[in-house]
Amino acid sequence: MLSDIEIAQGAKMLPIKEVAASLNISEDDLEFYGKYKAKLSEEYIAKMQGEKDGKLILVTAINPTPAGEGKTTTTVGLGQAMPLINKKAIIALREPSLGPVFGIKGGAAGGGYAQVVPMEDINLHFTGDMHAITAANNLPCALIDNHLQQGNVLGIDQRRILFKRCLDMNDRALRYVNVGLGGKVNGIPREDGFQITVASEVMAILCLCSDAKDLKRRLGNILVAYTYDGKPVFARDLKAEGAMSALLLDAIKPNLVQTLENTPAIMHGGPFANIAHGCNSVRATKLGLKLADYCITEAGFGSDLGAEKFLDIKCRLAGLAPSAIVVVATVRALKYNGGVAKADLVNENVEALKKGIVNLGAHIENMKKFGVPVVVAINRFHTDSDAELKLIADYCEALGADFALSEVFSKGGEGGIELAKKVVEACEKPSNFAPIYDEKLTIKEKISAIATTIYGADGVNFTADAEKNIKEIEELGRDMPVCIAKTQYSLSDNEKALGRPTGFTITVREVKISAGAGFIVALTGSIMTMPGLPKVPAANNIDVTEDGKILGLF
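The structure corresponding to this sequence follows.
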């Protein structure tokens, strides 16, 4: 059996100008990054604003497990299947982060015969967006330390500097660091830290801004520190927003690539959903809606994280409304939720499936709370038994959700035809999309609404630090949606609580404002914004041959 990278390296890619031509995009509207990648020009994006929108389809999933769910694979396969039923579609995905590529999770380009290509480029440096975001993030950090060194006219309290440096790599040793050591010439000593680039506010801003003007405004609104007398200091006070914008002028342009079957794909932005808002850029999604009758996008991790943030943050701030939601699950993952060890998931176990299927039920019910038709996609494996598949089909029917098998991993677009038909049908049903909370509520009320309505918690505990944070933030303004940082493995904040846990409370230990992005961040449990590497990192298996061929990527 061929690996993902072997399948991708054997693909017959079209020059990106030919993929663009299928969307009536001319060469003049492209900014080429080699033969198979291009950015879409600002002039083209502006020209498309008056075009009619297609229908928006969100792909999400159950809580992830070590068995894998295949959400991106399903998204890509669905995009490949649409032309096979004579529907014009485009997919809009996030860009992979180097952290999971070299860590444990892997990339974000799909799998098997449902991938976006060139796979190696996409999973590594791509068009340099991640590096631009990293540089733009670290510039105000350098300006802050220089400001302290050069007299500190603003009176910044070095104990209350909020804005952290970032790096697009898992590196736990950088979570807490001391800077400015080595004597007077090297700066003012203070405590600092790094977060991964995809958790940075600059990434969120890039993914939520509408244009270059909005980008600059949002960057200027980043709260970076407080003064000795408790006054807020923003990036604009350091005159940082202009230079930051300059670093991001190319990065805010969406990237055009293709699937293994040469269907178009836009990839842009890549915030994680467990520690950030988990959606590709508003610009990419809105452009996708102009380019095709169906724009298929995804949100990170399970629907309790990525989809909730897509619907409550991205759609609210950008004025978007999905016509259908696809919830991806696997028989194996549901059996894992039912208590089966990973090594035994290949064996039929209907009883364990009955126990674990409640996790799927929670995600179906949660998505229906937003007023949008739901389709369940079972990413089929050859070990799935007929009895197990029938149990899921009956379960979905009882909950009023359409159901389809997906075999896009092994068959590409052909394996997603049944799913594509069900999704198109769902898009024609009435959709009354609405977020689950009013942004005028207090911060604590919004957090509680998510925890009780989506996670199934009995309530929320706020630590003393969180209470203090909230009081301070509400002085700056509270009418923003909430982005909760939480483990992706459970509906609760305890990653070991599988299935559909009950009788639990969520503990919020810290609350921060991302004033530039336009949302408030609540950190729960032990979630970290700078992940670490596993005992055996995926980086150990990656190599390059003498003729320059990459091996072991996936």
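The chain is about 35% helix and 20% strand.
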